[in-house]
Amino acid sequence: MLKVVIIGAGDLGGALAFTLARHDRVGEVRLVDAQAGIAAGKALDILQSGPIERFGTRVTASDDVGDVVGSDLVVIADRAGAAGGEWTGDEAVALLDRLAPLVPRAPIVCAGAAAAPLIEQGVSAGTVRRDRLFGSAPEALAASVRAMVALEINGSPDEVSLAVAGVPPAGFVVGWSDATIGGANVARVLTPPTLARLTALVPRLWPPGPVALASAAARVADAIAVGSRRQVSCFVVLDGELGARRGLAALSVRLGPRGLEAVALPALSAHERTQLDNAIVAE
Question: Vertex 42, ends 88 and 56: CA angle to 5°?
């Protein structure tokens, strides 16, 4: 089974480790953080919940980034401690430069909401290929929108299928034209005023919180682990999609053990496509 290494044992990293362990689809989850005591404590807490949650995933901890060697998937999360948080700027670039040669084939997923610049720079600089470096945060936004729709129908988010595309925060576009509720087109279930109200709320859902981000990263990790054909929303560097060969956007993707397998454009109305094109140009 797969070995997943999470870089950072902050709120996001810890929640992700627990979610992956509970799903019980990977063999080992390792939390890596300079705050070794915090990482070890969270790993122990998760392990002790195994008999109750009924999972057998091995959860370990380390303070050595070099432990990513031999992993099948690396997830960049957030640092633990008072000086914690997501990696940004030069620190993020330095971290990616260190990781890249240690895992020449494994996908690297950036789980944080602020990871877009790192993904774009990492691919543009040739540090990591775009099929191996992408971000899972847009899936958290898509899940939040699905939850809002479910509340409108007094139903379950599992009944709702939709995708988001674009760039944060105000440049996200929901593909309402292709969205469904229980297999029926969303326009047949929700009124235009309701859709307009939900659309206006989307920018306020960004950035998602640590638990939502962890759930999204776990969904991406599951897709990589099992080679699911289910599409998820991810940050990807554009390579011809939307007529652009640079820049970054959230798009629907299909994932496999080696990372990004295919990028799909949502079915958008003319208005939605114009919004998306404008968002990409502005970015």
Answer: 115
